[in-house]
Amino acid sequence: MDKAFAGLRVIDFTTTIAGPHCSRLLADMGAEVIKIEAPEGDMMRTRPPLRAGASTAFGQLNAGKKSVVLDLKSPAAQQAARALVAGADILLENFRPGVMKRLGLDWESLSPLNPRLIYCAISGYGQTGPSSQLPAYAPVVHAAAGYDLTHLRYQEGRTRPDYCGIFVADVASGAYAFGGIATALHQRHVTGRGQFVDVSMLETMLGFTLTELQSAQFEVPPMGRPMFGPLACADGYLMVAVASEKTFQSMCEAAGHPEWAQDPRFAAYTDRRVNWGQFMDLAEAWSGLLTMAQCRALFDAHGVPCSPYRTVAEALADPQIAHREAMAEVRDAGGSFKVLNPPFRLSAADTRAGAHSPALGEHTAQVLREAGLDEASLAALAPRR
Question: Contact at 8 Å (CB) between 89 and 120?
Answer without folding.
Answer: no
